[in-house]
Amino acid sequence: QVQLAELGGGLVQTGGSLNLSCAASGPTSSINYMGWFRQAPGREREPVAAIRRSDGIVEYANFVEGRFTISIDNAKNTVYLQMNSLKPEDTATYYCAGGQFNEGYDYWGQGTQVTVSS
After folding, report:
1. Pairing of β 33-39 and β 92-99
2. Minimal CA–CA distance to 16: which of 107, 102, 85?
3. What sign results for the dihedral spanned by CA atoms 107, 93, 20, 88?
4. What's the pLDDT score for residue 67?
C-alpha cells in the first residue's frame, strides 16, 4: 500500500514562504502523477499543482499566479511545493496525492496545515 506523508506546513506572515514536501513509500511504480491540493474551512478541496513523474511536466491552478513551484525528486520519491508570496487566502490544509492519472488520484496524505496571517 502506497503511503504519502507531508511535511512543512506552519504559520507564516503575508508575503512569506513555505516549502512543503511529501514522501511516498511502498509500491510507488504505479504512480505517474503527483499533485498538491488544498481545502480551506467551509470550501471544497481544490487542485493546486501537479507534476508528471516521467518528464516533469507541471500544471498549476490559476490562483497560483507564478507564486508556487512544484518539483519532484524521483530518487527520493518526494514531491515538493515551494510557496512564495503567500496570502491569507492561501490558508488551508494542503494535501499531497498520487495516482496513475492526473485526476481521480488513488493515494492521499494526511494533510498539513498552512496558515497565513495578515
Report:
1. antiparallel
2. 85
3. positive
4. 98
List the one residue out of 58, 53, 50, 3 whose CA is nearest residue 25.
3
What are the pLDDT digits (tens) for 19-51?
999 999 999 999 999 999 999 999 999 999 999
Q: Which of 31, 83, 88, 32 is nearest to 61 (CA)?
A: 83
Amino acid at 88: P
Cell numbers 488520484 correspond to what residue?
105
Name 40's Cβ contacts closer than 8 Å, sequence gap at least 6. Answer: 89, 91, 92, 93
Whole-angstrom distance, CA of residue 48 vs CA of residue 35? 7
Residues 61-88: pLDDT tens digits?
999 999 999 999 999 999 999 999 999 9
